[in-house]
Amino acid sequence: MFQSKKRKALQPVIDTIRNDLSNNYKDNAVEGIHKLKEETEAAASAGTLKPKELQELRLLVDTFEMDVKNFKRTY
Fold it and tell me: What pTM was computed for the model?
């Protein structure tokens, strides 16, 4: 699948959020989700994302937000 430059630029943010969630870093994950959401909406306004990419990113943001909402400390 070919990705736009903007989508590729957001991939490190997505990877960091996934890493933060897997390591129980809730605060860092929340910050990353906020950044991803802002960047996604800015790209949507600017029209720099393909509609399918925009839909995928919005779904990913929603998924991350649910993960954080259900976050439970293991210690």
Answer: 0.86
SS3 string, the chain, reads CCCCHHHHHHHHHHHHHHHHHHCCCHHHHHHHHHHHHHHHHHHHHHCCCCHHHHHHHHHHHHHHHHHHHCCCCCC
- Please tell me the predicted confidence (pLDDT) of residue 34: 97
Taking a C-beta distance cutoff of 8 angstroms, is the pair 48, 4 a contact? Answer: yes
DSSP-based three-state secondary structure for 18: helix
Closest alpha carbon to 16 in 29, 34, 2: 29
- Helices 5-22 and 26-46 cross at an angle (nearest 10°) of 160
> For 1-47, what is each residue's pLDDT tens digit?
557 788 889 999 999 999 999 998 999 999 999 999 999 999 999 99
